[in-house]
Design goal:
Sigma_54_int_dom_ATP-bd_1, five-stranded parallel beta sheet, Rossmann fold, phosphoprotein, alpha/beta, 19 helices, 12% strand, nucleotide-binding, transcription, 453 residues, Helicase, Ruva Protein, domain 3
């Protein structure tokens, strides 16, 4: 249940606010002075605080400057009279979440409270995610700050809590093996073996013996009994990379392991039971392979209990700068040199499409470090295809209209941007104003000018 604190020297207004929002299900605290507000914030767990700009013993801005750094997990809203707009702007710069003009309408306050609650919840979610990302960085697993990778990390977290089979899909070099290790490290099996098998690296006969082991004399050259990878991964995790490359006969045997957690080694008539978590990965479209008869449908659905798609790097460009920094840190530690990249070079690397994804980026950074003449990398240190790549600039959707003057066309563009901002913020004017980096009053003036309701 959300707790509110209203700070205002009008006791009648405080009674009205307390009564109204208590009926709405909120826990409401009130204070009529700055000193009382300090006491209430120490003792009451209020998440959202409404501050009047003019109090008997302090100003709202003074309290805001005091409270914001002290209570970073709370949100502060300024209540101001119409004549105090300039002060309200100052308060926003001092860290206020929003402001509302007095006399305030209850429905307007409710909208602000709802948005503030959503913001606090999102902030808590981001804090949790940052802790996860920090943990990943410590483990040197994988970095991702884009919305797409945050979704991947949430799926990884959920998958790690279970023993369900996981199928990782994505282009080569996107980091599927790192995601697999991450799932293992976050799971209850983290202290048990993690065994990785590249199914594309071995011919069928060798792959079968590698996975399931064999008895002495099972085939020419089998001079002694040998355990396979499934037994090596007992109580832990086995990672089957490039699962789409295995043959149909071997798929049938693998299906039994996935379903029954049991198999027979080559040359043996004894069934071996294993407790193992299976993670598979592929850069191929298994669904299409099923339709073409190249991959068993029953095995596909048994592997695809939890499906995690890792997007290519070109679709999450905001991840490129932190990845570059991670790879540079690795090289700094290796060579004991403070390697750097100028901002314009980072911008150029962000624009490159990276067909080889994260693996190509890591290799390119390592190559540049080896070839650079000093401690600052240049574009000449990177591979030829990167040096010669042309910036990928999206075509402009702004077309010249010869029937309109320049001011008329600029107004059309401005109106479209305002409509887009309002759509993105669900019609919330204050949020749209922040998105456009203009004041709320200026946005309302523009909306009235363009007849936007």
């Amino acid at each position: 249940m959300t707790s509110l604190l209203f700070v205002d020297d009008e006791t009648k207004l405080l009674r009205i606010l307390s009564s109204y929002f208590t009926k709405k299900g909120f826990v409401v605290h009130t204070a009529s002075t700055g000193e009382e507000a300090r006491s209430k914030l120490r003792d009451a767990d209020a998440r959202i605080i409404f501050l009047d700009l003019r109090l008997s013993d302090a100003t709202g801005i003074e309290l805001l400057q005091e409270f914001v750094p002290r209570y970073p997990n709370k949100l502060f809203v300024i209540m101001t009279a119409y004549s105090d707009v300039e002060s309200a702007v100052t308060a926003m710069k001092a860290g206020a979440f929003d402001y509302v003009s007095k006399p305030a309408k209850m429905d307007e306050l409710e909208i602000i409270i709802r948005r503030a609650c959503e913001w606090l919840d999102m902030k808590q979610e981001n804090r949790t995610l940052k802790e996860k990302i920090s943990k990943m960085m410590q483990d040197q697993e994988m970095i991702g700050v884009s919305p797409a990778m945050k979704r991947v990390f949430r799926m990884v977290e959920r998958a790690a809590e279970t023993d369900a089979t996981v199928l990782l899909e994505g282009e080569s070099g996107t980091g599927k093996s790192r995601i697999a290790r991450m799932i293992h490290r976050w799971s209850d099996r983290k202290n048990q073996p993690f065994v990785s098998v590249n199914c594309a690296a071995l011919p069928e006969q060798l792959l079968e013996s590698e996975l399931f082991g064999y008895e002495k004399g099972a085939f020419t050259g089998a001079h002694a009994k040998r355990k396979g990878k499934f037994e090596a991964a007992r109580n832990g995790t086995i990672f089957l990379d490039e699962i789409g490359e295995i043959s149909l006969p071997l798929q049938a045997k693998l299906l039994q392991v996935v379903q029954e957690k049991s198999f027979m080694p080559l040359g043996s008539n004894q069934t071996v039971h294993v407790d193992v978590r299976i993670i598979a990965a592929t850069n191929r479209d298994l669904k299409t392979m099923v339709e073409e008869g190249l991959f068993r449908e029953d095995l596909y659905y048994r592997l695809n209990i939890i499906d995690i798609f890792i997007p290519p790097l070109r679709e999450r460009k905001e991840d490129i700068p932190p990845l570059i920094e991670q790879f540079l840190d690795k090289q700094r530690a290796k060579y004991n040199k403070p390697f750097t990249l100028p901002p314009e070079l980072i911008d150029r690397l962000v624009e490159y499409p990276w067909p080889g994804n994260v693996r190509e980026l890591e290799n390119a950074v390592e190559r540049a470090v080896v070839l650079c003449r000093d401690e600052q990398l240049s574009i000449e240190d990177f591979p030829r295809e990167i040096r010669h790549a042309k910036p990928d600039r999206p075509p402009s959707d702004i077309a010249l209209d010869p029937t309109k003057s320049l001011p008329e066309q600029l107004e059309s563009i401005e109106k479209k941007l305002i409509l887009d901002a309002l759509e993105q913020t669900g019609g919330q004017i204050a949020a749209a104003a922040r998105l456009l980096s203009i004041s709320r009053q200026r946005l309302m003036y523009k909306m009235n000018k363009y007849s936007i309701r």
